[in-house]
Design a protein that fits this description.
Shape: rod-shaped
Order of helices and strands: HEEHEEHEEEH
Structural class: alpha+beta
Strand content: 15-25%
Number of strands: 7
Oligomer: single chain
Distance between the termini: 188 Å
Radius of gyration: 60 Å
Amino acid sequence: MTYTIDDIIKQVNFMIIAVVVSCLINILLFAILPHFLNFKKAIKRDIASITPITICALNQKASDTHRIVSSPHKKIIPKKLINLKTPQFDVASLKGKDVAFKITQNRPILDRDKIYNLKEVEIAPILSFRAAPLYPYRAKRLNIEGYVKVKFLVNKRGDVSKIEILKAKPEGFFEDSVKKSVSLWKFHSAEIDGQSVAIWFETTIEFNLKEDK
């Protein structure tokens, strides 16, 4: 079998082309393959990082909108309880003994120089002696009846002073008679915490012709 020069040239050219093609294929493979492998690893990492989410429909009632839900990760710290100790008594040591418990109450200091009113005292003054007022002659002759409202001071000894006429009807008939009689009255004094105090006292004295007879 004989080869001509043209055949030899063709085979040489074919071999050169084959070598060049194989070199290009190798270069492409070595250049592209690492990027392809890195791309696969990236896809695996992305798939592994995906967190599955479960979606469900909630049928929430209107009354549940104000419900308070506690977090399962939040720790509930119990409040400290205050231990109130009850005082202990040795009952055995108290047998056969008279035991009295006294409850003291802080009360304001009594001002004995103050003049109190009827609402401020614990015991109101009590009339021990009453001189009846005389019916004025002029009022009796004119058949006039009426009354006098009077205010006076009862001191710590029960004596009356500082007599003041608040109202008289009719005026100008009975005032003097009331002042004379009230000045002779005696009282058991008013008291606060068992102590005698001065007090303003008011009363009304009536003048009636039927009762005077």
